[in-house]
Specification:
Layout lengths: L12 E6 L3 E5 L2 E5 L5 E3 L5 E6 L4 E2 L1 H9 L3 E5 L6 E5 L6 H12 L1 H16 L9 H23 L18 H23 L16 H10 L4 H13 L8 H15 L3 H13 L31
Parallel strand pairs: 1-5, 2-6, 5-7
Antiparallel strand pairs: 2-3, 3-4, 7-8
Helix pairs in contact: 3-6, 4-7, 5-6, 5-7, 5-8, 5-9, 7-8
């Protein structure tokens, strides 16, 4: 078969969750095979992220095909409450990584990036003369206030943000909805971060976590996409309205529709670059002594950072 041509991330569907099925490549197609042998075709080249829940298995050939088309494969806990591992789509470009690292290491540049993230997230400039720790505290307070506002808007009985990843069913309905919704956004954001050639661990507001930068980027869109959907579904569940499917799956489908209607994928990668440019440091070019590729690939339609 001819090598697949990567589809730009902005033109892809968002995410697909798979549980209790075996992923494989059959007759040239990426399929999920259920216990009774039923095949379900998955257009893997048109996805940003494939999230594998407990009970899912994946073959070597399926991983290879997903990597070739630039689709992020992640292994998650039930309902996505934990992310155990992720396979990187394509290859990260060193110039993007060096730029990101230099911004994070320069205190003044890092603060400018955090202030721009605040502006994008809340639609107003951050308070002046505030440190990153102070801005982190202000953002946390504003997010908690947004939970209260959405709870009132949708008529949800809301206490506070709290859940135990080791005891999922012990959480109340709004927290389960929020956890499932944010898991969708984190998977999508990590796919964008990796596809654009950045490092998930090098964060600006969030630090010290393997996916600090993923949380930074996801937070830019959270209150405009997944939080309203989570509270909307929670309100239906608390009113004892009959849902056509389990609660978490209902939330995922609602988030997927939100990603589509807001055209989120077309905005994430440009959004990453815009907030980083606020740091004021130039993007480094290739090193003078860099060795060119032994085999030059033809131009492809993937995102920057993707090997094609």
């Amino acid at each position: 078969m001819k090598p697949p041509k990567p589809i730009p991330l902005k033109e892809r569907a968002a995410i697909v969750f798979v549980e209790r099925a075996r992923l494989d490549v059959k007759d040239g197609a990426f399929v999920a095979v259920s216990a009774d042998g039923t095949r379900t075709h998955i257009p893997v080249g048109g996805l940003a992220c494939l999230m594998l829940e407990p009970g899912a298995r994946i073959s070597h050939s399926a991983v290879v095909l997903a990597a070739r088309v630039g689709t992020l494969v992640t292994w998650v806990g039930e309902a996505g409450v934990r992310l155990y591992s992720a396979g990187q789509p394509g290859g990260a470009r060193s110039d993007k990584l060096l730029w990101q690292a230099s911004l994070a290491l320069e205190p003044a540049a890092r603060l400018r990036v955090v202030r721009e993230m605040y502006r994008v997230r809340f639609g107003e400039d951050a308070p002046r003369e505030q440190s990153i720790n102070q801005l982190r505290g202000i953002e946390g307070a504003r997010v908690r206030a947004s939970y209260d506002l959405f709870a009132k808007q949708y008529g949800v009985v809301w206490k506070r943000r709290r859940y135990d990843p080791d005891n999922w069913d012990a959480s109340d309905i709004p927290n389960r909805c929020l956890s499932a919704a944010t898991a969708c956004l984190y998977g999508l954001s990590e796919a964008a971060v990796l596809a654009a050639g950045y490092a998930p661990a090098i964060g600006f507001l969030h630090t010290g976590k393997p996916r600090s930068f993923v949380y930074d980027i996801a937070d830019l869109w959270k209150t405009k996409t997944v939080i309203p959907e989570a509270f909307r579904i929670a309100a239906r569940a608390q009113r004892c309205e009959e849902l056509q499917m389990p609660l978490e799956r209902t939330v995922r489908l609602a988030c997927r529709e939100s990603f589509r209607s807001t055209q989120l994928l077309s905005r994430i990668i440009p959004g990453i670059e815009n907030v980083l440019r606020a740091g004021g440091l130039l993007v480094p070019g290739p090193a003078p002594g860099a060795i060119p590729p032994a085999i030059k690939n033809k131009a492809v339609g993937g995102d920057v950072g993707h090997r094609g």
